[in-house]
Specification:
The protein has 327 residues and is α/β, with parallel strands linked by helices. It folds into 2 domains: 219 residues, Rossmann fold (3-Layer(aba) Sandwich); 68 residues, 2-Layer Sandwich (Alpha-Beta Plaits). The protein is 41% helix and 27% strand. It has 11 helices and 14 strands. A 6-stranded mixed beta sheet has the order 6-7-8-3-9-10, sandwiched between helices. A 4-stranded antiparallel beta sheet has the order 2-1-4-5. Strands 12-13-11-14 form a 4-stranded antiparallel beta sheet. Helix 3 packs across helix 4 and helix 8 crosses helix 11. The protein starts with a strand and ends with a helix. The relative contact order is 0.12. The C terminus is likely disordered.
């Protein structure tokens, strides 16, 4: 389990991470999503103990990273965006070296190196120089290095960056297989990447938490925000008052569309989607106004991400302006 509590990181006067808190439960694959410059890599570097936070805490399986860094790091395997590979070593040599750094005995070390090469599919290149490997294989070697020592937690920062489509699919499958025995925190700004492999998603922007939940929960929020599109045939003067009288409806927007004469197009926002739909149906039936369309367009994860980050960015800007006015 990873616990991040009120994490803050300043670079000079720039606040890269702003009071960030979240939990990654054991056995989960959690996507860490955000635009470039959102603070993802900085946060991951603090979680792994590579850099120290300005304030706040990181607990790895209950161990405080600041107070007991060596013990905490024993439970972490880290794959940075650019793996720190030694180009002039052979693959097996590099992994043996990594195992030695982790103070593994020779007998255990050799078995471990063989196991991680098998898991990551690099047995066939084990005697090749790392400099001669493709980008996809270098990523696999970096991941194999992170797996040495069989850590409970894997931190993967943009693991598919720079890979071709075939290599991306292979890496996704590899991550899914690893998730059976490891807790995984996966950073990316590619939505398809996150939705393909993750159980839950954390969205950050400007170092702050924007939203969290399963992909389905986040897209459901956007569907609710987008409302129900309803196209009804009838008199506008009858339809609108009848809909405004319904308990569950909060807001009605008229949409100007060219189409068949006598059709009224609306976007309707309400509380419980199923109840709203039923109320609309019965209200229009009582007026003998046929419903031509009643849809709730499916929101993609991309749309959810953009809407959630834009909304929060606007809110932060308004809060900042208010603070300036008060000050």
């Amino acid at each position: 389990m990873i616990e991040v509590k009120n994490l803050v990181k300043y670079y000079g006067r720039h606040r890269a991470v702003d009071d960030l808190s979240f939990v990654v439960d054991t056995g989960k694959v959690v996507g860490f999503l955000g635009p470039n410059g959102a603070g993802k890599s900085t946060t991951m570097n603090m979680i792994t103990g590579y850099i120290a936070p300005t304030s706040g805490k990181v607990l790895i399986d209950g161990i405080d990273m600041e107070q007991k860094p060596e013990r905490a790091k024993e439970n972490i395997g880290y794959l940075p965006e650019i793996p720190p590979l030694y180009q002039d070593l052979r693959v097996r040599e590099y992994l043996v070296f990594t195992a030695e750094l982790k103070k593994m005995g020779r007998k255990k070390r050799d078995a471990m190196v063989h196991d991680v090469m098998k898991k990551t599919g690099i047995m066939d290149v084990s005697e090749r120089l790392i400099r001669h490997l493709s980008k996809g294989y270098r990523q696999r070697v970096g991941l194999a290095g992170a797996l040495v020592g069989d850590p409970d937690i894997l931190i993967l920062d943009e693991p598919t960056v720079g890979l071709d489509p075939g290599q991306i699919m292979e890496m996704r499958e590899l991550i899914r297989n690893l998730s059976k025995n490891h807790t995984v925190l996966l950073s990316s700004h590619i939505m398809q990447e996150i939705s393909a492999v993750c159980d839950e998603i954390l969205i950050i922007n400007k170092g702050r938490m924007m939203a969290s939940g399963t992909p389905e929960e986040l897209t459901r929020q956007i569907r609710k925000k987008n409302g129900i599109k309803c196209v009804v045939k009838g008199e506008r003067g009858k339809i609108l008052p009848a809909l405004h009288a319904l308990e569950q409806i909060r807001q009605i927007e008229e949409v100007q569309e060219s189409g068949e004469e006598g059709l009224v197009s609306l976007i309707i926002h309400g509380e419980e989607e199923g109840v709203v739909r039923e109320q609309i149906f019965f209200a229009m039936a009582s007026l003998s106004c046929p419903i031509y369309e009643m849809t709730n367009p499916n929101a993609s994860l991309e749309e959810a991400f953009l809407a959630l980050t834009e909304d929060e960015a606007e809110k932060q800007e308004e809060d900042g302006q208010l603070e300036e006015e008060v000050g």
